[in-house]
Automatic annotation (TrEMBL):
This is Regulator. Residues 268-338 form the Winged helix-turn-helix domain. It comes from the Bacteria. Residues 683-722 are annotated as: Disordered.
Length: 722
């Protein structure tokens, strides 16, 4: 005799066996809505993600709100080890009874026929083949069935819709920590004393809900600050999950270790080797760094695909193309295995070699139409470049490579708004002893360059003098040319125009002799043009910048072009043509902002402020001055402390104050100071397309007074700073 026992709810749902929620469900409102929508449109949806990311909780919450006339039933497969028992586990979850000799699969097909229910299959990743076969057959033969699968990898059967689940964002992770902490430690609440520590703790835990909850559980003994300080040993720290939790969810190590157990030997090997990367990495880097000694290069792609499927890796789109990444806890687990294998040093060297090659290629390709791609590539690879620099500057015998790498990234430090970080690495490099002169000399002139742009004259002079002396001693014409060039740049921003002209002309001659042509050489021409402009020789300055413009257009170079346009705008305004000056500055500003070049951006804003005043809008000019004032501390000494460079600013301020009055001028400046960089640039570029209000006539052209430091023309000169 057979009968169908319609199961009675054992807990949470009116009709089914979903357990009741015992604590608050935090965040995930957007994911909940998307998963609900996915279930409405597909009969099989699989929620994937790494261990502890909250897949089961989200699936249960979604299932509880699903309209299923014959109920919502959950089959937990984590404890099942035999693939032949998968069907039995589903039968048991559904509460079916049968006294015949029929196999469970036949029973399921018979009892589910004509019924409309949702089956949640959770924790199937170690039984994926058996589970996929069962679910596939049930879906094909019982049209009223829907399945919500939950696991660390897809089932990979027809009709499956994947729903990859990412960790919590920062806000939700902090909210989860606070809620769970308050449950463990009565009276706990976020306040000014612990909020920043909790936020950083959640960030370093990648927003993984399990890790956040385990950390909150430690508050009975440790403060958030103490938790944060002990996070280097996260696997010993993050233990103590509830007794009713699945064994693999009682510690962070076991949660991740469960994924590790499910991997093949090749997958485990690649996982450990990928731990040498910091942040994101691309396939080519993984193939170079990780192949060999048990893992063929042509197998890396397939193994990466397997790790993606198991949520060990995540794929992300970036401006530099697709990248892969590991969460920090997953990487730390792999790093433990790599250290145990004894292969860590070899992998770190291969990692260093790859990023040395990348930096060398990027430096060469900077002088090309691919500048924007190079900037995006270095930005995407910055965490790995930092790791390579750290390795070189801490390992014996590697110092010269660290100096070379820090120097080769000059275009990024200078051209993409990273002066402070560049100086950090360069100073660390030159402080170390090294027997490779060329690497050290390159680091010295780049350090001098960075210090100049930051307004640190003493440090710049020290580095450039050492570079010049050593270049003469070792007979290095390239280093000598760069040292002389940057010394000329230093004279320029120090208001010694005659010396600047002499040094810059000499450096350009040296570049010509050795056949050097790149963005640095073009910037030398722009800087010479600015020195000539400050001395009143505008025709010669224009000729130099027009030549730079032609070379830039021939080679697709845009970064140096922006500074040439700046000098041409300076001349146009002095010649009484503010409209042409604005057009040149708009293009200059657009290019500088594209590269995140803070110096080029702030210089263009400063000169645009004067143009705006001349065109009759002193209020907007004051706003632009305020926006520039906010940016200068991120660059260095405002206007290099130069009297020449400061004249356009002073002239703009004087005229705006006269027309607006001190109080209104101050209000406008403060309004500008509240603008972020993006907002300020957007505002400046948007207004560029409008006809400025002709409230005040533009001043008549004045002849330059070459005896005074500023001339009566807008000076500025980011372009001249190289």
């Amino acid at each position: 005799m057979q009968h169908f026992d319609r199961p009675r709810p054992s807990g949470g749902t009116p009709h089914g066996n979903l357990p009741l929620e015992l604590d608050a469900f935090v965040g995930r409102s957007a994911e909940l809505a998307r998963l609900t929508e996915a279930l409405e449109g597909s009969r099989l949806v699989t929620v994937t993600g790494m261990g502890g990311v909250g897949k089961s909780r989200l699936a249960a919450r979604t299932a509880a709100g699903t309209d299923a006339p014959d109920g919502v039933w959950r089959a937990e497969l984590a404890a099942v080890r035999d693939p032949d028992l998968v069907a039995y586990a589903v039968v048991e979850a559904l509460g079916l009874t049968d006294q015949t000799s029929r196999v469970p699969r036949e029973l399921l097909l018979d009892r589910l026929a004509g019924r409309q229910l949702l089956l949640v299959v959770d924790g199937f990743e170690h039984l994926v083949d058996a589970c996929a076969a069962l679910v596939g057959e049930l879906l094909r033969r019982t049209p009223g069935l829907r399945v919500l699968a939950v696991g660390r990898r897809p089932l990979e059967i027809e009709g499956e819709r994947l729903f990859p689940l990412a960790p919590l964002d920062d806000t939700a992770a902090v909210e989860l920590f606070e809620e769970r902490a308050a449950a463990r430690v009565p009276g706990f609440a976020l306040d000014d004393g612990n909020r920043s520590d909790v936020r950083e703790l959640c960030r370093r835990l990648d927003g993984i809900p399990l890790a956040v909850e385990l950390a909150a559980g430690r508050l009975s003994a440790l403060s958030p600050a103490q938790l944060l300080s002990r996070l280097e040993d996260r696997f010993r720290l993050l233990t103590g999950g509830g007794r009713d939790a699945l064994p693999r969810h009682q510690t962070l190590r076991t949660a991740i270790g469960w994924s590790h157990e499910l991997c093949t030997s090749e997958e485990r090997l690649l996982w450990s080797r990928l731990s040498v990367f910091a942040g994101r990495f691309d396939l080519e880097a993984a193939e170079y760094v990780c192949a060999g000694d048990g893992l063929r290069a042509d197998h890396v792609l397939d193994v990466v695909g397997a790790l993606l499927a198991q949520s060990v890796l995540a794929r992300e789109e970036t401006p530099a193309g697709p990248r892969y990444r590991m969460l920090d806890s997953v990487r730390a687990y792999g790093a433990d295995w790599l250290a145990a294998s004894g292969d860590a040093d070899r992998l770190r060297r291969r990692h260093r070699d790859w990023y040395m090659g990348l930096a060398t290629w990027c430096e060469l390709d900077w002088f090309s139409p691919r500048q924007a791609e190079v900037a995006a590539r270095v930005e995407a690879e910055l965490p790995n470049l930092r790791r390579a620099l750290e390795y070189c500057l801490t390992e014996p015998g590697e110092t010269h490579l660290g100096q070379y790498l820090a120097g080769s990234l000059w275009f990024y430090w200078v051209g993409c708004g990273r002066l402070a970080e560049g100086r950090h690495w360069l100073e660390r490099g030159v402080e170390l002893d090294c027997d490779r002169d060329r690497s050290r000399l390159k680091a010295l002139w780049v350090l001098g360059y960075v210090a100049i742009l930051q307004g640190d004259t003493v440090s710049a002079l020290t580095a450039l003098q050492e570079c010049r002396e050593e270049a003469l001693r070792t007979g290095d014409p390239t280093a000598l040319a760069y040292a002389e060039h940057r010394a000329g740049c230093l004279a320029l921003v120090s208001d010694d125009m005659r010396r600047a002209e002499t040094l810059l002309r000499s450096a350009l001659d040296r570049y010509h002799e050795i056949g050097e042509l790149n963005s640095n050489v073009l910037m030398g021409q722009v800087e010479l043009a600015m020195a000539l402009a400050f001395q009143g020789d505008m025709p010669a300055a224009v000729k130099l910048c027009e030549d730079v413009r032609r070379v830039c257009e021939d080679h697709g170079e845009r970064w140096a072009l922006a500074y040439a346009l700046y000098v041409l705008a300076y001349e146009a305004l002095g010649a009484g043509d503010p409209a042409r000056a604005r057009g040149l500055l708009v293009r200059c500003l657009d290019i500088a902002h594209t590269f995140h070049d803070l110096l080029g951006t702030v210089l263009a804003l400063e000169l645009l402020a004067l143009v705006t005043t001349v065109q009759g809008d002193p209020a907007e000019a004051a706003v632009l001055q305020g926006a520039a004032a906010r940016l200068w501390p991120s660059v260095g000494l405002p206007l290099f402390g130069s009297a020449y460079y400061n004249v356009p600013h002073q002239r703009c301020e004087a005229e705006a104050r006269e027309r607006l009055g001190d109080e209104r001028y101050g209000e406008c400046v403060r309004a500008g100071e509240r603008l972020g960089r993006d907002a300020a640039v957007e505002r400046a570029l948007r207004r560029a397309g409008q006809r400025p209000p002709a409230v005040v006539p533009a001043p008549r052209r004045q002849a330059p007074d070459t005896q005074k430091p500023a001339v009566s023309r807008p000076s500025k000169g980011g372009g001249t700073t190289g």
